[in-house]
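User: My instructor asked us to take a sequence, write out its structure as tokens, and then describe one feature of it. I'm not sure where to start. Here is the sequence I was given:
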Amino acid sequence: MRHDANICIRDAIDACELILAFTADYSLQQYQADPRTKAAVEREFEIIGEALNSRLTPERKAELQASARYTIEPMEQESHRT
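Assistant: Let's start with the prediction itself. The structure tokens for your sequence are:
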């Protein structure tokens, strides 16, 4: 089912915000040791993927992918410090 592009964008932004909230005070080790948080974060990435595969223009997809990278990079940086 196709959705309005604005709804898809809102869904993806909401998912990014939830990922940030779920992982705000976690080190990479804490995150990896918490299956509940990992499952919640993985589900939000699925929602982002569903939004990207919906009725979005290539430009909008690129914007959302950049947002996802912004979400992931802090955790990757933390993993390289340990």
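For the description part of your assignment, you could build on this observation: Residues 5-81 form one domain. Try explaining in your own words what that tells you about the chain.
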